[in-house]
Amino acid sequence: MALNEQKETLTLHTYFPTVVGVGINPDHKAVEEKLTNKCLEIRKKVKKGGKDWLAEDTYTTLNTYDLCKDPDFSTVNDFVVSQVIEYCKANSIDLNCLNTNPVGAWLNIYKKNNFQEWHTHGNAMISVSYYLKCNDSSAKIYFKHPVLDTMAPKILSYNHLNCEQVWVQPKPGTALIFRSYLYHCVAHQKNDDTRICLSYNFRRKYD
Ligand SMILES: [Fe+2]
């Protein structure tokens, strides 16, 4: 609709929404236990990555163990790729510009009091968080509004039009797909259970 066709005194148009895809793996139950045990085994053997993280106690294999090279993770990896393709289709992103091979995939294990600070995924186009193991009280992931507001108005009641950040309660077998520039963080893990998340980065393919 063109702006000059407007009849009401004021209507609200949302032009630049932040799009997070949510994909649910129907086959998750079949792999959860095996891959959870595999992740815990990796933790015992593989040096921790994320050397610049403020969350230095959170175990991650960022740059130390690539899940794409481990055939045990292939079914989840394939599911994640399929969801990234669907995300691209839903956003009219040209699939010819997507490198469907993740450029990195790593695991993150959150024990009690572990967290991760606000961050983006540099040098990537699309990122995914896949929840391998968690429960209803596991630490939430937060996403931040991509615009840095230098004089934020006082908001009387938050809704989808004016929120500055949103949280998602992770569910096992769920993949969150988002553009890599989007700031996100993980709250402190408060319970004694282990929260395991698999992370993926996808890059653009140039002509
Ligand atoms: Fe991240």
Kindly describe this structure.
With 207 residues, the chain is of the alpha+beta class. It has helices at 28-45, 74-90, and strands at residues 21-24, 59-60, 104-110, 116-119, 126-133, 141-144, 165-168, 174-179, 184-186, 195-202. It has a single domain (21-146, 164-202), classed as Jelly Rolls. It is built from two helices and ten strands. The protein has a six-stranded antiparallel sheet with strand order 1-8-5-10-3-2. The chain has a four-stranded antiparallel sheet with strand order 4-9-6-7, with no helix packed on it. The protein is globular and about 65 Å long. The two termini are 33 Å apart. Residues 119, 121, 184, 199 line the site of fe (ii) ion. Residues 119, 121, 184, 199 line the site of fe (ii) ion (FE2).
* Second CATH tier, the architecture: Sandwich
User: Helix/strand/pairing class, anyone?
Assistant: alpha+beta
Let me know the number of strands. 10
In terms of per-residue confidence, which ranges show pLDDT below 50 for 5 or more consecutive residues?
Answer: none
Query: Which ligands does the model contain, each kind named once?
Result: fe (ii) ion
